[in-house]
Structure formats: C-alpha cells, structure tokens
Design a protein that fits this description.
The chain is α+β, with helices and mostly antiparallel strands. The chain folds into two domains: 4-19 and 222-250; 32-205, Mannose-Binding Protein A, Chain A. The protein has five helices and 14 strands. The chain has helices spanning 4-26, 61-72, 94-97, 121-125, 221-250, and strands at 43-49, 54-55, 83-85, 109-110, 116-118, 147-149, 152-153, 157-158, 171-173, 193-194, 197-200, 203-204, 210-211, 214-215. The strands form five sheets. Strands 1, 3, 4, 5, 11 and 12 form a six-stranded mixed beta sheet that branches. Strands 2-10 form a two-stranded antiparallel sheet. It has a two-stranded antiparallel sheet with strand order 6-9. A hairpin with a 3-residue loop joins strand 7 (152-153) and strand 8 (157-158). The relative contact order is 0.21.
C-alpha cells in the first residue's frame, strides 16, 4: 500500500485545521466607537450631553444616573456599559458619583464618535476641555448652545447651596472654553428642564497591548491546544514516513 498520499492527507488536514483554529482563537471584534488615536489595550472614557432634558428638582443622584442610562439606551450602537451623571447633589458630588475615580483621573475622554473632548478626566471635571472638539449628544450630534445642569464647581465638587435638588442650581455652558462645569450662575431655578452630561464606565480598546516594537502576544487557549496537537501530529507523520521508507527499502 502506498502510504505517501495518506501522509499528505494527514499533514494537509492538520495544516488547514491549524490555520483555521489560530484565526478563530485570535480574532477580536472592534469597538464601535474606538478612538482612532489609541493603541489596543488602551483605556478611555466616553461622554455625551443628553439630547433630552430633565428637571433638577430631585436631590437623589440615582435619578440623574437613571436618566443618563436611559439617554444612552437611545443609541443601540453604544457599548454595553454603565453611565453616570456628571452632576452633584448635596449628598453626592460628581467626583464621588464617578465610581472609577481616583484611578481613572488621567484617562482621556471622548465623544461617542471617537473625537477627543479632554486629554484626561481631571481636565474634563475642571472644565478644561482641551481635546479640540465640543461635546456631542449620545448620537454624535452637535449640542453647542445649551445650558447644562451640573450642580458642581470646577473639579466636580458640590456647589454648596446650588446643587441638584436645591431651589437654585449651578449650570455649565457647553459652548464655552472654561465654563462647561461651573458657569458661576447660582441663581437658576430648578423649575426649568435642561440636559446633563453623562460619563461612561472605563472602556478598553480591544486587542493585546502594543509597544513601539510590535504586539505583545497573549496566550490563546485554542491556539495553545492546537499547537500541542500539531506537535503530536508532526511526530506521528515523521514516524509514518520512516516506516514507509523502511518498507520500500525491503521491497
């Protein structure tokens, strides 16, 4: 029996399986709104200004967090993540309402379309939106020209006697360069409905971390299993070839 075709069949089948297996094990889905200037493995935050408005009469921060989540849900393309109101009540400041702080203070903040708003969350909270782009809605639409409920002073602390739920509440201005959080307007009645800012949980660019010299490989369970299988098949093919060679020599 000529076993050479068998050797080629086994080797060829393994090669196809190995290629398919490694491709499936290492593939990753790209995030819908991945900032284009960040490398795989980088972390960042998303922010938007709500396209709808809310009254600032409630003193419960949970009401504003719920509103932020419901506004984010209007865009089904946004990542499945938590959203918090960038706003302060007397009991909970904006800083304390952002669960990732202080660890995420240095992370950059982006609009939902991937354009940068601020180079760090710390700068965003201080009203220093240095990314060169105005804040947008949860759908990526322009919002310039609106007063926004913040109840906060620059830095994300509670504006004393002017927090959300107080008779008069602090505003931000989304079209200004320095007053997006604290516009200095403490005499605004909560009777009027206005938008708020919403901030996402920490996001990560898909893929293994990269360095200037290339990609740092991460172990793939499927790939490692196939590699072990490949070593075994390769050894078996070698033994089979030697047997065929000996049989041919005797005949």
């Amino acid at each position: 029996m000529d076993r050479a075709p068998l050797i080629r069949t086994v080797a060829g089948g393994f090669s196809a399986m190995l290629t398919t297996g490694f491709g499936a094990g290492s593939s990753a889905s790209a995030a819908v709104f991945s900032p284009p200037d960040l490398l795989p493995g980088s972390q960042y935050l998303l922010a938007f200004e709500t396209s709808d408005t809310i009254f600032a009469s409630s003193s419960a921060i949970s009401d504003y967090n719920t509103f932020a989540m419901s506004e984010a849900a209007m865009n089904s393309a946004l990542p499945a993540t938590g959203w918090s109101a960038l706003a302060s009540t007397e009991a909970v400041s904006a800083v304390n309402n952002i669960s990732c702080l202080p660890g995420c203070a240095s992370l950059p903040v982006y609009n939902v379309d991937g354009t940068q708003i601020a180079s760090s969350l710390k700068k965003l909270l201080k009203g220093n939106w240095d990314g060169g782009n105005a804040i947008e809605s949860q759908s990526g639409d322009p919002t310039a020209g609106a007063y926004v409920w913040t109840g906060s002073t620059d830095g994300g602390t509670t504006a004393a006697n002017a927090a959300l739920g107080d008779p008069f509440t602090e505003l931000g201005l989304d079209w200004q360069d320095l007053y997006q959080i604290d516009a200095g307007y403490y005499g605004v009645s909560v009777a009027g409905a206005k938008p708020i800012y919403a901030l996402s949980d920490v996001q990560t660019i898909p893929g293994p971390p990269t360095t200037p010299t290339g990609t740092i490989p991460s172990p793939e369970p499927v790939g490692l299993s196939l590699f072990a299988l490949g070593a075994g098949v390769t050894a078996a093919v070698g033994r089979l070839r030697r047997k065929v060679g000996k049989a041919a020599a005797k005949s």
